[in-house]
């Protein structure tokens, strides 16, 4: 039986705080989308109130088995209709505050899961 964790090549969230996230060696201060497969791109929204259905259609175009939506400093839910592009592609969606999404992303990515995190930084 092995007790040491498997090594993962997925990018890792090394830290987070109000208005920032550290991924690998970079400190980022804007909303972003990352994936275990190496995708890292800006996500054009600064507040929860700025989100639109198009933001979730953008995420649905990324191959994934699960999307973690980090909704900012607290857990907030978008209208279910906005998630339809993800549902149509049979991509699971979990909503939580951004800090919880960071922690969950690291766990799933280290397990080799095809996970995407859409992280709102307010």
Automatic annotation (TrEMBL):
Q: Please name the SUPFAM superfamilies in this protein's record.
A: MTH938-like (SSF64076)
Q: Which Pfam families match?
A: DUF498
UniProt xrefs under InterPro entries: MTH938-like_sf, NDUFAF3/AAMDC
Q: Which domain of life is it from?
A: Bacteria
What PANTHER family has UniProt attached to this entry?
Answer: NADH DEHYDROGENASE [UBIQUINONE] 1 ALPHA SUBCOMPLEX ASSEMBLY FACTOR 3, NUCLEAR PROTEIN E3-3
Q: Can you name this protein?
A: Mth938-like domain-containing protein
Q: What is the species of this protein?
A: Acidovorax bellezanensis
């Amino acid at each position: 039986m092995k007790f040491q964790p498997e090594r993962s090549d997925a990018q890792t969230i090394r830290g987070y705080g109000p208005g920032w996230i550290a991924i690998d060696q970079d400190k980022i201060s804007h909303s972003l989308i990352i994936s275990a497969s190496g995708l890292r791109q800006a996500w054009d929204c600064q507040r929860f109130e700025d989100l639109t259905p198009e933001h979730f259609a953008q995420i649905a175009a990324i191959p994934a088995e699960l999307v973690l939506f980090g909704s900012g400093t607290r857990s907030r839910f978008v209208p279910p209709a906005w998630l339809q592009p993800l549902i149509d592609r049979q991509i699971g969606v979990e909503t939580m505050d951004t800090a919880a999404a960071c922690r969950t992303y690291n766990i799933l990515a280290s397990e080799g899961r095809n996970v995407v995190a859409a992280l709102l930084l307010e």
